[in-house]
Design goal:
Distance between the termini: 35 Å
CATH superfamily of one domain: FAD/NAD(P)-binding domain
Protein name: FAD-binding domain-containing protein
CATH class of one domain: Alpha Beta
Radius of gyration: 21 Å
InterPro entries: FAD-bd, FAD-dep_Monooxygenase_BioMet, FAD/NAD-bd_sf
GO molecular function: FAD binding; monooxygenase activity
Pfam families: FAD_binding_3
Number of strands: 19
Cofactor: FAD
Length: 388
């Protein structure tokens, strides 16, 4: 019978592996289908808010990851044009005491490796590489076709296959991605020898019209992850494109000397074009549902990983209560999850507008940031970081 088959998960990224581990810990068999290998050597850094690290702890993964993480003491906000420091948001001990879990930064490859190790150790989880979903058939259960013609059956399907999701095309075929008119560039720098303020144990966020810059330590503090987002660029699929440094630097010609010097230190950049997706009419169709960027992608204005793992707990708890009725479980999951995910996406969009203000509005923003207390700035994210 269909309920005796495993839950199929398309995609072995952070979302897919987290989902599989969560289901496995609830005693639900899960099979993860990945189109390539399971190695994740490339990628940018990730900021994990307390809501994410709390869930990683519940999944038994956090202690494995800690040696590769960094715990920043604060977020420092700068005006990119003048170089003036505008505000400080306390993290470190302050955030951990406030939310009961740490705020951490790490490299995506390190996070992925820890999740993969946990998934491989879970008796209820199996991993299958070389499976590129080409078709979905829903009858009594779900049958998934591989591009090579082979098929696999499951009780249900969870699409964790990212921004360019194949499963989403089956759930909501009318949905279409649109180019957001911006490009994100990323690089890693050795942290040793960097000048202030880039050597500080903090997250740096630099704001200006049409561009912003983020940097923070990864690889246990040995490297600095740098992400620069600028308006324009070429529209292309994929998030590991070779980048032309001159196209990046052209977006920072008016920036202060300190910030430009950091960008000029990098020997190589990777880039990805930013796309947006209108709100889907539904995340689920029968015994098929979506999680993460397949359901509601966020541009890298607000770190995605802060929201990811919360959805995995929803899926696990709801599925455990209704293991033989996946379509009802998925509907309940969506109803519970959608309002919060939508709020985060809207917050990221609003912050993006604030980051890129110009003229008098930029000066008013800078003044307002300087007038707010450090704890008040952090307190506005209690709804995000404080959820358990």
């Amino acid at each position: 019978m269909a309920q005796d088959l495993p839950v199929l998960i398309a995609g072995a990224g952070i979302g897919g592996l987290s989902t599989a581990i969560a289901l496995g810990r609830a005693g639900i068999n899960a099979t993860v289908l990945e189109r390539s290998t399971f190695a994740e050597e490339s990628g940018a850094g990730i900021q994990l808010g307390p809501n994410a690290t709390r869930i990683l702890r519940s999944l038994g993964v956090l202690d494995v990851l800690l040696p590769q993480t960094f715990r920043p003491e604060a977020v420092w906000l700068f005006d990119g044009l003048s170089g003036r420091r505008l505000a400080t948001v306390p993290l470190g001990d302050h955030a951990e005491q406030r939310y009961g879990a740490p705020y951490l930064t790490l490299h995506r490859a390190d996070l992925h490796a820890g999740l993969r190790t946990a998934a491989e150790a879970a008796s209820a989880v199996s991993l299958s590489s070389g499976f590129d979903v080409s078709g979905i058939e829903a009858r009594d259960g779900i049958t998934i076709a591989n591009l090579d013609g082979t098929t696999i059956e499951g009780s249900s399907l969870i699409g964790a296959d990212g921004l360019w999701s194949t499963v989403r095309k089956w759930v909501a075929p009318e949905a279409a991605l649109s180019y957001a008119g911006a490009t994100a560039f990323r690089t890693l720098l050795p942290r040793k020898g960097l000048p202030a303020p880039f050597s500080a144990p903090v997250i740096g966020l630099w704001l200006s019209p049409k561009a912003h810059l983020v940097h923070y330590p990864v690889h246990a503090g040995g490297a600095l992850n740098v992400v620069a987002v600028t308006a324009g660029g070429r529209k292309a699929q994929g998030w590991n494109q070779t980048a032309d440094p001159s196209s990046l630097l052209s977006g920072f010609t008016r920036w202060c000397k300190e910030s430009k010097s950091l960008l000029e230190r990098a020997e190589g950049w990777r880039a990805w074009s930013l796309f947006s997706l209108p709100a889907l009419p539904r995340w689920s169709r029968g015994a098929v549902t979506l999680v993460g960027d397949a359901a509601i992608p966020c541009c890298p204005i607000s770190p995605k990983a802060r929201r990811r793992h919360r959805g995995r707990r929803h899926a696990r708890e709801i599925f455990r209560r209704r293991p033989q009725r996946p379509r009802h479980a998925f509907r309940t999951y969506e109803n519970a999850r959608r309002p919060r995910a939508t709020r985060l996406k809207n917050t990221a969009r609003r912050l993006g507008r604030i980051y890129h203000l110009r003229g008098p509005a930029r000066l008013a923003r800078n003044t307002a940031l300087g007038l707010r207390s450090e704890t008040a700035t952090l307190r506005q994210f209690d709804w995000l970081y404080g959820v358990d």
